[in-house]
Amino acid sequence: MTTLPPRAGRRCHNALNPLHSTVYFSPDYAKELAGLGIEDSNAAYFAGRAAAMGAVGPGTVAATFYNFSHELIAQHLPAVWDVAPPAAVLAARLRAADTTLRRLLGDDTVASEAMAEAAGLALRAAEGCTRHARPLYAAHADLPVPEEPHLAYWHAATLLREHRGDAHLVALLSAGLDPLEALVSHTATGKGMAPRWILATRGWRRGDWDAAADRLRERGVLDERGELTEAGTALRAELEEHTDRLDAAPYEHLGAAGVERLTELGRVFLGAAATAGAFPQDLVGKG
């Protein structure tokens, strides 16, 4: 029986996860990976997010990332590990997190009591996470916790993000949505990544997108205009509720007061990062 208000864990996730993601949009990240010899943006992303699992191949990344084309991943993995080993990539990613957070939030915020408090709360929540059937979370959970509070906060946000992400894949499979159907239906909510970004970064072609949309129409998830039907809206809502149920443990472990405070602090940091230009303006939308 949950002791938290409805969707409290999801609200907390939504406050922390985007700040974790800022690193992958950061010029600091691109610079750090290029310093290792990884200059292609797709190769840099796959390496940085997968490195905690070791020198894995395209099959493992396709399985754990879910919505990327295996063909695109195979263009870069396992070859990227011949350029830089996973340990070097992880060190570069952490350096990028440091410079990115300092640039977006400022040194005063990075060194603040609020940041130290947020790091403590987020790490306490992560104590409630579980490794079984959560490969990306489990791999990151084996990494050491950085000493600096802002990096500890980013690390904990990464743990919580991957824990929920692994759970979300279970929900997608249960709902019978393949990788591209998941993307198309999420974009149709108005809260997902814009199609131009998906087609530019996930390795899919316009024909793939259109075919997935057709399958969703046949299933009654989309209407002829590509908007969610009543059934489609219900499906997406149940997906999030299913994910909430599978991801409840860390927030139950932290408790209602802690979740509320962590969400409050996370929103302040996220707002500052967004104001500082952390994200592309056209990243989210239906167009």
Give an overview in words.
The chain is mostly helical and about 290 residues long. α1 packs across α11, α1 runs parallel beside α17 and α2 runs antiparallel to α7. The longest helix is centred in the middle third of the chain and has 27 residues. About 40% of the residues are buried.
Give the overall shape.
globular
Q: Into which percentage range does the β-strand content fall? A: under 5%
Main beta-sheet strand count, sense and barrel state: none
How many helical stretches?
17
Q: Structural class, from secondary structure content?
A: mainly alpha
What is the residue-mean pLDDT, rounded to a whole number?
96
How many runs of DSSP E, i.e. beta strands?
A: 0
- Percentage of helical residues? 55-70%
Question: H/E order of the elements?
Answer: HHHHHHHHHHHHHHHHH
Report how far apart the termini are. Answer: 41 Å
Radius of gyration: 19 Å
Low-confidence residue ranges: none
Oligomerization status of the protein chains:
single chain
Reconstruct the topology from this structure.
Blueprint (H helix, E strand, L loop, with lengths): L7 H18 L1 H9 L5 H10 L7 H8 L4 H5 L5 H4 L2 H20 L1 H4 L2 H14 L8 H7 L7 H27 L3 H10 L6 H7 L4 H13 L11 H17 L2 H6 L1 H20 L12
For the structure shown, list the relevant keywords.
single chain; 287 residues; mainly alpha; 17 helices; 69% helix; 0% strand; globular
